[in-house]
Amino acid sequence: MTIKSYFLSALCCIPFSIYAQQDNAKLHQLFDQYFKEGNLFNPMNATFNGVAGYNDLLPADDESFLKKKHDFYAQYLKRLKSFESLHLSKQDKISAAIMENDIESVLVLEQYHPEYLPITQFASVPSYFAMLGAGTSAQPFKTVKDYDDWLKRCGAYAHWIDVAIENMKKGIKSGYLLPKSLVIKVIPQLQALAKVDENSSFFSPIKNFPKDFSDADKKRLTEAFKESIPKNIFV
């Protein structure tokens, strides 16, 4: 090959490399957007992952929310597919495949109405709620805002329960039920969580205020907890 041929080959490769880098950057932006926006549909997961900004949220699986959730995943799957024809790096191909599998798993699972089984023996919002509300898990209780965030999440809990009950009724009609042997074990767990008790772990955060809280904040938050917990949790 002549020097001229080498030079022409190099010119052909340069723009291809540049475009590949630009497309990869756009894909990384898609990854970031997907993770950030996805936390709105799984705010408790965000809390357990230490992602700030979602600690006050607790969406219920009503029809409106489920549609928004479906549209979110369907939209991102479509956007991800647009990168298939591009020459991506090996790492980006792996990341894209992981994201695609994550999205498709959600879209496949929704066909089986997991919202009809909101409570199980090992994993459910009530059990996670008790864990978070004790103040020794992922839900932060370091600032006044942290306490207010938890109160907002508590305020959404009663609605979550109402929607869960309606979804379980739909499950009964459709034949989506837990085995009786499991339900028998779940009932006492829920009864223990719902027991009206001043010594409940749900009151632990107001018994262990950070030292820098003012007396006024302590008083306000104590009153708010004593009103919200029995009203929204012990129902």
Give the low-confidence spans: 3-22
Proportion of β residues?
A: under 5%
* Mean pLDDT value: 89
Please tally the helical runs, counting DSSP H or I stretches of 4 or more residues.
9
Question: Structural class per helix/strand content?
Answer: mainly alpha
Tell me the overall shape.
Answer: globular
Helix fraction, binned, reads 55-70%
Largest sheet: none
| Oligomeric category | single chain
- Counting structural domains, the number is 2
H/E series: HHHHHHHHH
Termini distance? Answer: 82 Å
Q: What's the total count of β strands?
A: 0
Gyration radius over CA: 24 Å
Give a verbal description of the structure.
This protein is mainly alpha-helical. The protein folds into 2 domains: 17-112, no CATH class; 116-235, no CATH class. Helices cover 68% and strands 0% of the residues. The chain contains 9 helices and no strands. It has helices at 3-38, 43-48, 63-81, 90-109, 125-133, 144-174, 180-194, 204-207, 215-233. Helix 3 runs antiparallel to helix 4 (90-109) and helix 6 (144-174) packs parallel to helix 9. The chain is globular and about 60 Å long. Residues 3-22 have low confidence and may be disordered.
